[in-house]
Amino acid sequence: MWGMIATWRMAVEGLTEGANTLEKGGSAEEAIVKAISEVEDFPYYKSVGYGGLPNEEMEVELDAAYMNGTTLDFGAVGAVKDFKNPIKIARRLSVEKANNFLVGVGAEKFAHKEGFERKTMLTDRAKIHYKNRVHKLNQQENELTPYSGHDTVGMVALDQQGLMTAGTSTSGLFMKKPGRVGDSPVIGSGLYVDSEIGGATATGLGEDLMKGMV
Ligand code: ASP
Predict the structure, then answer these.
(1) How many angstroms is it from 151 CA to the middle of ligand 1?
(2) pLDDT per position as a tens digit, 185-196
(3) CB under 8 Å to 135, separation ≥6 — which residues?
C-alpha cells in the first residue's frame, strides 16, 4: 500500500512523479522531496520557489519544512533567499541532532556550506506583479488584504515500507514584511506526520492557522 496527497492544482505534476516513485517501491522521503522540488522549480507558480511573489522590498523569501513520520525528525527553513530548493535544505536539516529550524542568514550560511544550489528566485514575471501591485496601492490607496496572493504546496506521502513523510514549501504572503514567517515551516502547524497515525499539512493565512493549532 502507498499513497500521496497534496494541496492545490500546482502540485499535480510533482505529485505524479512522486507517486511513480512510490509505486515502484521508492521511499516516501525521496518521493516528497522530488515532488515538492518539481513545484519549486516551476516558474509560473506564484507562491512557491522560483517565480514566487516577493515581499514588500521585492525580495523572494522562502519557507519550507520536511518531517519523517517514523523517527519524527524534522528540518525547516524560514525567510531563506536565493536557494533553488528550500525543501532539500529542510530535508538535510532533518538529520541534525539540533539546530533543525534555521531562518534567514543562518539558513543561507548552512545551505551554502552544504553546497546547495543557489539561484536568483525573483523572476521578471514576479517583478511585474510586484510593480503592478505597488502602482495599484499608490493609485487607489487600496488596502492590501492578507488574502491577496499566497498558497503553499503541502504534501503527505506513505511508502510501501510504511514510512510516512510530510513537506511544505511557500513564498508566503505576497508583499509580506521582510522576515515574516508563516505557519508553513512550523512543525505542528503547517505540517505534522506520524507514520502510525497519519499526516496533515495546512494552507491559508499563516497568522490564522497558527491561532487554531491545526
Ligand atoms: N500558509 C502560508 C503562509 O501564511 C500561505 C498559504 O498557504 O497560502 O505563509
Answers:
(1) 5
(2) 999 999 999 999
(3) none
